[in-house]
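User: Could you check the structure of this?
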Amino acid sequence: MSETVGREALFMAKITRVVTHEIANILAAIGENALLVQDIISLSDGTPASREERIGRVFGVIDKQVTRGVEVVARLNSFAHTAYDVDGSSDLNKIVHGTLAIAGRPARLKKFDLAMKEYHVPLPVTGNPLIIEMTLFECLELIMEQAIQRTTVLLRPDEGNSGEVTVSFSSEDPSQADALSTKALVLLPQWTSLQESMARLDGRLEVRDAPIWFDAVLPRG
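Assistant: Sure, the predicted structure tokens are below.
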């Protein structure tokens, strides 16, 4: 139990660090552009029309950053709520959406794209949604560490066998399915650790044939 709690704390600290870094970048961009407006206004060169055009472009950047900031804060708020939703069942579609949201910046830094093909109806899943999200996030981290080429990682929630639901991990481009060697993957200590995490959720990881690399299998809610 203490190991699980420790991993949760580290996971939440990691995500908080990522999101607060994004917020800091957003605020810095707003501040820099606000100073730029001041500089434009203070300069007397150029026609009034050209100054207005430049100021309009700057305010467009500021507006875009404010919108981005609202989205990032909403993402952090949604992530924080997963810590409280520990009883009953959750929608696997929403959990995968949340995972992709918090994994967006790490993926961009490693030059990966993330995508999701949502299941057409809610997929109830049992288990602590924070632990599920953490485990799916760690699956993405492992893929981005081990892939031999950059690709778009596709997550696809689906119905599994009776009493189960799945999240498949694959390349969005079938021609790049060999970007990850699943034979090498299952020999890594991180894979063993992920299997242990899935076991705590009464689930498992199953290696698949290309183009799908593996499935995260969880009990249906």
